[in-house]
């Protein structure tokens, strides 16, 4: 049986920005190239990637990242009623952002391991298999 993975936006950002956890995501993507794993992202992940990178690095970098992601061995799960209703259910039951609810719903529906760096997604680990990557440390803000 081929393993199935769903990459959260945070996992993809870790990969492209070579943050802690990038190696794990890279191994999963290599397995997808070798056809020993299947990798998915939610449609909403593209929007998150686009706006986050645009805000951090500009529009050109955001467009380049989308082209890169679409060249990877990743299938995009588009919005559909079943995913939308699962996302609504998760949003109602847990303190998740709407985007995280869609990502988690995608992982539930395709029965994939959810790869993430988002402490918020730890809430759903009783519903599905999750593999958290090293979380970003909170930076101390001083005035």
CATH superfamily: 5'-nuclease
Instruction: Return residue spans where pLDDT drops below 50 for at least 5 consecutive residues.
Output: 139-143
**Morphology:** globular
Instruction: Give the second-level CATH assignment, the architecture.
Output: 3-Layer(aba) Sandwich
Mean pLDDT: 92
Radius of gyration, CA atoms, in whole angstroms: 15 Å
State the end-to-end distance: 53 Å
Classify the fold: give the CATH topology: Rossmann fold
Helix content: 40-55%
Strand content: 5-15%
The count of helical stretches stands at 6
What does this 3D model show about the protein?
The chain has 143 residues and is an alpha/beta fold. The chain has one domain (3-132): 5'-nuclease (Rossmann fold, 3-Layer(aba) Sandwich), CATH 3.40.50.1010. The chain has six helices and five strands, in the order βααβααβααββ. The chain has helices spanning 9-16, 22-33, 43-57, 59-71, 81-93, 98-110, and strands at residues 3-7, 37-42, 75-77, 113-116, 130-132. The protein has a five-stranded parallel beta sheet. The longest helix is centred in the middle third of the chain and has 15 residues, at 43-57. Mean pLDDT is 92; it is low at 139-143.
Write the layout of secondary structure elements.
Elements: E1 3-7, H1 9-16, H2 22-33, E2 37-42, H3 43-57, H4 59-71, E3 75-77, H5 81-93, H6 98-110, E4 113-116, E5 130-132
Parallel strand pairs: 1-2, 1-4, 2-3, 4-5
Helix pairs in contact: 1-2, 3-4, 5-6
In short:
With 143 residues, the chain is of the alpha/beta class.
Question: Features of this protein?
Answer:
alpha/beta; disordered C terminus; 143 residues; Rossmann fold
């Amino acid at each position: 049986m081929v393993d199935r993975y769903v990459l959260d936006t945070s996992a993809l950002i870790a990969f492209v920005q070579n943050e802690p956890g990038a190696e794990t995501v890279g191994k999963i993507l290599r397995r997808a190239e070798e056809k020993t794993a299947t990798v998915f992202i939610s449609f909403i992940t593209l929007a998150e990637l686009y706006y986050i990178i645009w805000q951090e690095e500009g529009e050109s970098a955001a467009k380049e990242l989308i082209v890169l992601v679409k060249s990877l061995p990743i299938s995009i799960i588009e919005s559909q009623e079943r995913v939308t209703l699962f996302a609504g259910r998760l949003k109602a039951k847990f303190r998740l952002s709407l985007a995280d609810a869609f990502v988690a719903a995608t992982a539930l529906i395709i029965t994939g391991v959810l790869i993430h760096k988002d402490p918020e997604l730890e809430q759903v680990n009783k519903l599905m298999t999750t593999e958290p990557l090293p979380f970003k440390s909170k930076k101390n803000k001083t005035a």
